[in-house]
Amino acid sequence: MNTLHEISRASLLRRGFALEYGTLGWNVVGIVVLAVAAVGARSVALAGFGLDSLIEIGASTVVIWELSGTGEDRQRRALRLIGGAFALLAVYLAVQSTLVLAVRFHPRHSALGIAWTAVTAAVMFVLATGKARTGAALDNPVLKTEGRVTFIDGVLAAAVLLGLTLNAAMGWWWADPVSGYLIVFYAVREAREIFSGDH
């Protein structure tokens, strides 16, 4: 019976690693794609989502360490670094979005940004579902928590997609910095939860 349990747990751990490496790989590619799209369109929301992808890489790395049996002290230090990164992201986007709105800067259209955020939203929702189920089966709160972060990443991708689409279709230039504010809200919430120990 124990052997079957160990085999099942090993299989779940492999699935957990696969989900995290998949998230890691997607976000590594995403940083490059989003950087190109953000510079081309001069989009605050795309730049912010690119920074969020960088933070997601850190979060996935933390979970990979944890699944490998790494000590809790190292995990706490890594989480604090991620919390600091979220705080810096919030400050950067709050300042940039406010400046863009104040000077009425109009970002360009970004077909690449629209395509990437649309696909990213779908991929993140699939990964988040897999992490939630695997984390529950393993009774692993770290994997389940990071699954929620991945789900929010999908929501943010959808929000940025909406802003880009409104700018392209309706000429609503302000939709881009408003999408940036949505990421600010998320970044502040994540930083607060990490530093308060809720993660």
From TrEMBL:
Residue stretches making up the Cation efflux protein transmembrane domain: 85-195
Single GO term (MF): monoatomic cation transmembrane transporter activity
Assigned keywords, A-Z: Cytoplasmic vesicle, Endosome, Membrane, Synapse, Transmembrane, Transmembrane helix, Zinc
UniProt xrefs under InterPro entries: Cation_efflux_TM, Cation_efflux_TMD_sf, Tmem163
Subcellular location(s) of the protein: Cytoplasmic vesicle, Secretory vesicle, Synaptic vesicle membrane; Early endosome membrane
Membrane-crossing residue ranges in chain numbering: 21-40, 46-67, 79-105, 111-130, 151-175
Membrane protein topology class: Multi-pass membrane protein
GO cellular component: cytoplasmic vesicle; membrane
SUPFAM superfamilies, alphabetized: Cation efflux protein transmembrane domain-like (SSF161111)
Pfam families for the chain: Cation_efflux
Family, similarity comment: Belongs to the TMEM163 family.
Name the record gives this protein: Cation transporter
